[in-house]
Design brief:
Elements: H1 7-20, H2 26-40, H3 62-66, H4 81-90, H5 95-100, H6 104-112, H7 116-125, H8 130-138, E1 140-144, H9 147-158, E2 168-172
Parallel strand pairs: 1-2
Length: 177
């Protein structure tokens, strides 16, 4: 799966948040849930590559893809799920705002799948994710048999803001031939 954030992915993420917070009428909940499920499952599509999601192109038209939500009712009479999604999107004033209301469970699931480089980048560019990404970056510390590695591990363990994230420490030794 590609590792960049597209407009469609932002829409699906916010739609998921709205579903979890109960912002859709009971008559529209199943339809919205089916829509979310059909767009987040990995599948081979027109790209022909197994395991890629449907929105690998940066030029995917979010309005076209999210438009079918107009068939489902929101919890506000006379408004559709699409209307509720657009209202939430218009309230965004930056990427930080997109994540601030997310349930902690979704944030945790998102962070679990990231590699170290992605966690480091996320930690630097997003004030909301900084403490959460730090928790995942420093929860396990590997110490190699070098003086520099031992010094780095020691500095993490002595750091007031990082040491409480460390839950395990491993001493890695080279295998004998």
């Amino acid at each position: 799966m590609a590792r960049y954030l597209t407009p469609v992915r932002i829409g699906i993420l916010i739609l998921t948040e709205q579903y979890l917070s109960g912002q859709f009428a009971s008559s529209g909940q199943l339809g919205v849930l089916s829509f979310i499920a059909s767009h987040i499952t990995a599948r081979g599509g027109s790209t022909g590559k197994e395991g890629q999601d449907a929105f690998v192109g940066l030029d995917a038209n979010a309005a076209e893809i999210l438009g079918p939500l107009a068939k489902f009712a929101s919890d506000v009479p006379g408004r559709t799920a699409y209307d509720a999604l657009l209202q939430r999107l218009w309230k965004l004033d930056g990427l930080d705002a997109a994540y601030e209301d997310l349930p902690e469970e979704i944030v945790e699931l998102c962070l679990e799948g990231l590699d170290i480089g992605s966690l480091q980048n996320l930690r630097l560019v997003n004030r909301f994710f900084n403490p959460r990404a730090s928790k995942y970056l420093y929860r396990h510390v590997d110490v190699h048999c070098t003086e520099q590695s031992a010094e780095n591990a020691y500095s993490i363990l002595q750091h007031d803001q990082l040491n409480h994230f460390v839950t395990s420490l491993a001493l890695l030794t080279p295998l004998d031939p």
